[in-house]
Amino acid sequence: MKTQSLNPSGAWKSSETVYPILFAISISHLLNDLIQSVIPAVYPMLKSNYALSFTQIGIITLVFQLTASILQPFVGLYTDKKPTPRSLAIGMLFSLAGLICISFASNFIYILLSVSLIGMGSSIFHPEASRVAHLASGGKKGLAQSIFQVGGNAGGAIGPLLVALIVIPLGQHYIGVFGVLAIVAVMILTYVGNWYQIHLKPKTQTASVSALKSDLPKSKVIFALVILLVLIFSKYFYMASMTSYFTFYLINKFHVSVQESQIYLFIFLASVAAGTILGGPLGDRYGRKLIIWVSILGAAPFTLLLPHVGLGVTIILAILIGLIISSAFSAILVYATELIPGKVGMIAGLFFGFAFGMGGIGSAVLGWLADRTSIEYVFNICAYLPLIGIVTGLLPNINRKKK
After folding, report:
1. Rounded Cα gap, residues 13 and 4, in angstroms
2. Is 119 within 8 Å of 72 (Cβ atoms)?
3. Residue 215: how many other CB atoms lie within 10 Å
4. pLDDT at 403
5. What is the 8-class DSSP label of residue 225?
6. Is 338 within 8 Å of 57 (Cβ atoms)?
7. Is the overall model pTM greater than 0.85, yes or no?
């Protein structure tokens, strides 16, 4: 296993995988997404405290996800031209401000303003963090993205568990406790930003990388990007049903307590984190297209079965769905960067942004649908979304199977 090394002149070798930086950015991603996951985890509390409808719950997610998505492609495009290492820590300060605000939020509008701050922090963090992972990958792009992604998914899993242990029994003001984690993240990101500043490629080298073009015609590149975005739509619309409404589904159908539902949500999200680490390395070895195909379409049998079983089997199926469907994003993101070389920030911003946007729109639409039908009906409809994975067959082959 290669690690960071210096050549005789003291310069870092870009062909080496810099694991300390990859783990540091992964931990930062864990803390960033843990903070984000606090928002849906406190939905049952907010719904009860302020008599919110499912539509309003969906609007909260929509505002959060849109602020976390619309800015990302623009941030990525800007940082491709002008990398900004200090923006990593600055983005986390926005999230810190949002946490403090939501802990004292007293009405629906204040909640929306609070979550928008956390969303803006996320939109600043992800494109540059993806560039750092790419820079530290040493050519192992899939592995680097998986290490980066698994931190985020682990944070998303831990957040609801901590909310169940701290916020649910103690009250809304204790959301502010998570600000300590934001401060820790600022310190780690300051360290990462310093490394990033030192190891940024010279402008001439950056320009040459940006000049690289895909072997595919422009029309095929655009078509492939559209297919990838369709796959992101299917994955994140389904994920919206789980992250925003799985607790309500369990409470309504099986009459579990709020704390129990949060624990079951944690189990699902933990399986998502576990599955994430597989997607990148397997994509490096067997090809991104195969992994994308298996990870989305392969979840369909389990999603179709989930609405029709008891509590125990529901949790088992949720674990299997999380393990399978979570391997898609790293493979999709690296596949996209290979379609358009030299535009890591823009591609990361586009795909993270689109994923968050689909999650937000999905949550709002599903909340509206739940108000007019039922949570169980929503889960029956969403069960068909992974079948969209069949369009993976339309993607061109752009990499070879690795031994």
Report:
1. 7
2. no
3. 11
4. 40
5. H
6. no
7. no
